[in-house]
Amino acid sequence: MRRVTLSVCSNKGGVGKTMVATQLAIYLRALYQDLPVLLVGLDDQRIIDRMFGLRPPDPGQPNLKHGWAERDLRPVVQLGQYGIHFVPTPPDTGPLKMRAEDPTMLRSILERTDFPGLTILDTKSDLEALTRNAMVASDLVILPVSDWSAFEEAEKAFALLGREPGGERRGRVLFTLVDRRTRIDREGRDLYERLATATEERGWPRFQSFLSRSPRVEALSSGSTIPGSVLHQARGTAVHRQLRELAEEVGKLLPLGDAVSMPAPPRTASPPAAPPGSAASLKNAFLRGLRRR
Q: Whole-prediction pTM value?
């Protein structure tokens, strides 16, 4: 069964890249219960470690830096919360950039790792070596756009993708953190409508789904040392519905329905025991939450 990779990329910070990568991983894992999902963070914020680790991050544990050096991520993959696999993030991604001058390096590493499912790459707010590696390695590149500045940065990303034959077709705009209440021009259009018109004029693919701004979701991301899951902790919000719609759209685009019959990946090491009540109970709540809109 084929492997599938998607990345979330933007040269602008604050557009919701990590939120999209982490929450989408949870929703896709719920929609496709037999689909293994692997998260790899190319940033050094370690949000993925705090959100999915079954115990506090250990600075001494092997991480992405070690997997990159070995050209194989299997020795450093962990099984975490919500049934998501992840690679621990290095405290500093600077040394990785020095090893990422070849834009095909990450693609080669993922081919050798041969993770039997979906790999999601969360990138830093730049278009430098690691982000370019992620774009080359991906079957689908999600480009979050929250405002006009982010739209201009998406234009740069499409230019990079266009260096490969047909590469720009792998990019797709996702409107994020959109506030549709404020009218911004004489025609009475809001920001979303203006961005949608400009995207269509350039012929860029875009998701029909979008993610609106939500104080409750923002609190899940920043109000605790452990970021929360929208699926489990924000049911009933507009963003809960929007994330489900986005996950369904991604599933059809890749398509992930062709990958759900693959066997579960072998564990490289026994994961640490979860805190009481966080294993089976989370899984059951996880599945129940997706069914409630």
A: 0.86
